[in-house]
Write a structure and sequence with these properties.
Blueprint (H helix, E strand, L loop, with lengths): L7 H15 L15 E4 L4 H9 L3 E8 L2 E6 L10 E6 L2 E6 L16 H4 L3 E10 L2 E6 L7 E6 L1 H15 L7 H7 L3 E5 L10 H4 L11 E6 L9 E6 L2 H8 L3 E3 L2 H15 L11 H6 L6 H8 L5 H5 L6 E7 L5 E8 L9 E2 L2 E2 L4 H20 L9 H4 L7 H9 L24
Length: 427
């Protein structure tokens, strides 16, 4: 563990204390009765972006860049991937044009909301020597809160996982994550498309987004993208209701609400992958010497792609820098990966010197020991690790073989109490 210079820990804790004073997560929420679902016309969607900006948010959402759908700053509907979809399989990702003008007619790309809340690199503090003493300065909080537009159920579950890691009870509150998470408004999208590597139904995280959203959209397309193209909008918090009140909507009729539910239910039946989660942690840990670990090690490149695209992985490394005069120093945190040889390096060398041991650590932590550590799985079923593995290693297949139990058909709910289309509300 890297030692803290005198005064640095105090600066880090001061930033965390300031977050606690400004935040709302330590205060029990007031009772909230959500308004009735509303219908928002496709032509009025720009009003949502305008309302978020008017309320002081920096809006981040999906956009097309470098032949992929990634999350970046958006200001107009034209910035969104209108009319695009993605095709995903193990080791394969392609964009193609749809035959309609769906706004959210795709699944998830290589980036996740982790980049916005837990950035790939962040300065933790800086120090200057003044009058013979070091003066430590914590990093200031962002000037404007974030509005995350287009958060899917698997991604919302991943944000909840990282909340436990960085802000949960019994852990030292992380001021960098907290400063970005605090005040962030989440506009979820209940999925109308399932990708070839999706298995959120198995992980009970989607396709309907679960708890935690402020506002949620279900996109309903008219016949062949005709004039009936609209969104059913739900508010899950007072902040979401405030945004909804600014939009040009009307109450959604019972048939319109039923059509929105049907979209999500259909998506639940089209999962490209499935994973039997019944007693999965125990079954995986019973297979620590399974020969499959040697097999997958011959295929794995230890490239760390899976951990970089994963929305829940949180490994990081800390680096100290100073100038040549010794008058200025900074501490930076950067993403790291358990697939790197140096990640487990101790005084005598790396604890996990083989690819076999590193892949086993990743898979068993994600699906087994994470449950012991944080009370939930570290996997939300987004499928990114399968899609973006350059050799197409499939987490669901490896877990099936090592845990020793076949899964049901694609999209079938697995594990005790699986809710199928995701019944949790956004309150």
């Amino acid at each position: 563990r890297r030692a803290w210079p005198r005064g640095a820990r105090r600066a880090w804790r001061a930033a965390g204390a300031a977050h606690r004073l400004r935040g709302v997560t330590d205060v029990p929420p007031a009772p909230f009765t959500p308004p009735a679902p509303a219908r928002l016309e496709r032509a009025a969607l720009q009003g949502l972006l305008d309302a978020l900006v008017d309320l002081g948010y920096d809006v981040v959402g999906p956009t097309v860049r470098d032949a992929a759908i990634v999350y970046d700053a958006v200001r107009t509907v034209a910035d969104l991937p209108v009319g695009w979809t993605d095709e995903q399989e193990a080791g394969r990702y392609r964009l193609r044009r749809r035959d309609d003008e769906a706004v959210f007619g795709f699944t998830v790309g290589p980036t996740s909301w982790k980049r916005s809340l837990f950035p790939p690199e962040a300065r933790l503090w800086r120090a200057r020597r003044e009058d013979g003493a070091l003066r430590f300065e914590p990093e200031p909080a962002p000037a404007r809160p974030l509005a995350l537009l287009g958060v899917r159920g698997c991604e919302l579950a991943a944000i909840a996982v990282q909340d436990r890691v960085f802000l949960g009870a019994g852990v030292e509150r992380d001021p960098v994550y907290g400063a970005r998470r605090e005040g962030a408004l989440i506009v979820a999208v209940h999925c109308a498309v399932a990708g070839g590597t999706c298995f959120c139904v198995s992980m009970q995280t989607g396709p309907r987004a679960g708890p935690g959203w402020d506002l949620a959209l279900t996109e309903v397309l008219g016949p062949k993208g005709g004039p009936d193209h609209h969104f059913v909008v739900e508010a899950g918090t007072p902040r979401g209701a405030e945004v909804l009140a600014r939009l040009a909507t009307r109450p959604a009729s019972a048939p319109e609400q039923g059509a929105a539910r049907a979209v999500v239910e259909a998506t639940a039946g089209r999962m490209g992958r499935a994973l039997d989660t019944t007693d999965l942690p125990a079954r995986l840990l019973a297979g620590l010497e399974h020969p499959r670990w040697d097999d997958v090690a011959t295929r794995c490149l230890s490239c760390a792609n899976c951990t970089m695209v994963c929305p829940t992985c949180f490994c990081s490394a800390v680096e100290d820098t100073s100038d040549l005069t010794g008058e200025h120093a900074e501490r930076w945190r950067r993403w790291d990966s358990c697939f790197g040889l140096e990640h487990s390096h101790l005084h005598g060398g790396s604890v996990r010197g083989s690819i076999r041991s590193r892949y086993r650590q990743w898979l068993t932590h994600k699906l087994a020991t994470w449950v012991e550590q944080f009370g939930t799985s570290g996997c939300t079923g987004c499928g990114r690790c399968v899609t973006w593995c350059p050799v197409g290693i499939d987490l669901t297949e490896e877990a099936r073989v090592i845990a020793g139990r076949a899964v049901g058909g694609a999209g079938a709910p697995t594990g005790a109490g699986a809710p199928g289309a995701g019944s949790a509300e956004g309150a």
